[in-house]
Specification:
By secondary structure, this protein is of the alpha/beta class. It has helices at residues 44-51, 74-80, 99-110, 114-127, 143-154, 173-190, 201-207, 225-228, 235-240, 268-276, 306-318; strands spanning 2-13, 16-28, 33-37, 59-64, 67-68, 84-87, 161-165, 193-198, 210-215, 218-224, 252-260, 281-290, 293-303, 322-325. A hairpin with a 2-residue loop joins strand 4 and strand 5 (67-68). GO terms for molecular function: ATP binding; ATP hydrolysis activity.
Length: 328
């Protein structure tokens, strides 16, 4: 659905060139939620604006639903952008228009009839849970309600792709969860492909099927979240499930284990204790649901030296559990 190859964007500032996006490749299959995670200045927002060509890249291609947007003339590009909805960090609503008026605005631009607009707006406001707030102005809405209006407006033209620019960073934690749950529901119900950027690890944890970590205009790692969890060197995996230091007792071997998919719900540790007659201690960790995947990391203490616990750890690896030295 989205394919980016060799994307590069440079700005000229104060007499020098600043590379915001440096040769990024990205593929987002249809119906997937892909998160780009990074701190301020990493190049995330520039990348997102290049996807719908609000910023034209200096090099590279952007293909959405089989159409190379970088090859289109301006008139063709305006038409192609209707397939791509955009949700903004600070809502970007028109203060002089009601919720219904804001959602109707892009439909007015396309020339849709008044009656058809009214039907479509009512349908969209119901979809985002604001059917009873159609006549409210932005000043009368909470932050979460404003973002729901923004999402409804982004969906007005029936896009196949939704871009989310830090859509929850201005919201409190509870409202953030409700907006992320809405995006996940829309992804499932409408088959929307969603590309979102964020600096919050919890956003990736709650809704993303795949993710990339961006730094200095480049992806330092990317892939399906479930696959990244199985990589011992994954920065994303460590961020999703951080394990605080824990003090082992004398004579114990401490390891970190990463569980994903079937292993996250199987009685792996109980079986290990029975088979090897071990008293396994869980020092810390968690098992949670990441989008639709169960996953987690645990820090375990096993009685005995590294040599003595080696058979038990080999058994875990045979069961598909990633086992690494604690803290690595």
């Amino acid at each position: 659905m989205i394919r980016i190859e060799g994307l590069r964007k440079t700005y000229h500032s104060r007499g020098r060139d600043v590379v915001a996006v440096d040769g990024v490749d990205l593929t987002v299959p249809q119906g997937e939620i892909f998160g780009v995670l990074g701190q301020s200045g990493a190049g995330k927002s520039t990348l997102l604006r290049c996807v719908n060509l609000l910023e034209r890249p200096d090099a590279g291609t952007v293909v959405v639903d089989g159409v190379d947007l970088t090859a289109l003339r301006e008139k063709q590009l305006r038409a192609a952008r209707r397939r791509v909805g955009m949700v903004h960090q600070h809502f970007a609503l028109l203060a002089s228009r009601t919720a219904a008026g804001n959602v109707a605005f892009p439909l007015e631009v396309t020339g849709m009839s008044r009656a058809d607009r009214a039907r479509r707006v009512a349908e969209l406001l119901d979809l985002v849970g604001l059917g009873d707030r159609a006549s409210a102005y932005p000043a009368q809405l909470s932050g979460g309600q404003k973002q729901r209006v923004g999402i409804a407006r982004a969906l007005a033209a029936g896009p196949q792709v939704l871009l989310s620019d830090e859509a929850t960073s201005a919201l409190d934690p509870e409202t953030t969860r409700s907006i992320l749950d809405l995006l996940l529901d829309l992804n499932r119900r409408l088959g929307l492909t969603i590309l979102l950027i964020t600096h919050e690890m919890d956003v990736v944890k709650r809704v993303c099927h795949s993710a990339a970590v961006m730094r200095d205009g480049r992806f330092v790692e990317s892939g399906q979240v479930a696959e990244l969890l199985r990589r011992p060197d994954s920065e994303l995996a460590r961020g999703l499930f951080p394990l605080p230091p824990a003090e082992p007792r004398p004579g114990e071997t401490v390891v970190d284990v990463t569980l994903s998919g079937d292993t996250a719900d199987e009685p792996i540790l109980a079986g290990l204790a029975r088979r090897f007659d071990l008293d396994v201690r869980i020092l810390n960790g968690a098992v949670e649901t990441l989008a639709a995947t169960r996953a987690g990391r645990l820090r375990l203490a096993l009685p005995g030296s590294a040599a003595e616990t080696a058979p038990a750890l080999a058994h875990l690896r045979e069961r598909g559990v990633l086992v690494t030295e604690a803290g690595r």
